[in-house]
Amino acid sequence: MTTRPVRGVEIAEIDETAVASYLAVTPDFFDRHVQLLEKIRLPDARGGASTVSLLERQVEVLRERNRQLERKVKDFVDVARENDALGSRVLAMARRLIAAKDQPAVVAAIESALREDFDSGQSVLVLTAGRAPAGLVESRFLRVVPAELPAMRSFETLFAANKPRCGQLRDSQREFLFGADAAEVGSVALVPL
Description:
With about 190 residues, the chain is an alpha+beta fold.
């Protein structure tokens, strides 16, 4: 530890980290030395040449922390509202599927739910079968392909993982799924069933 003169008095130079650590573990320090609180002046956090008291600075810090917490709460509320709306859409889709009496009605329910409830611009249901099941007619939405089709090999990792995947596709995958509309599709949600 070294000393240096301050206003004619020799004082020991103390590391700022040591002072900060001491004050952190001794929160009642200013209770015992109230006169120091009156003398401490800090630069105004908003800029300018003026100074503010420690209390004013603490109030400003607490206000900023409060603003940050309010933003977080607002974000949580927004996410909760989005989740609630999503839950309602999933419930509406489940009701449509339960009400479906046969396979064509199930396919129609899936297509209308994706289009109307989930606002899906493009959607495709690909069934891997040699031919369309009875009553189902291939359409822009419904495609029936053999499982051995070479284009299906590019989706093997999706089926092996058995989990939905979101993101971009390779051009060949996008063209296989969406055909002439492939250029309009940027990213997709793939759900293996």
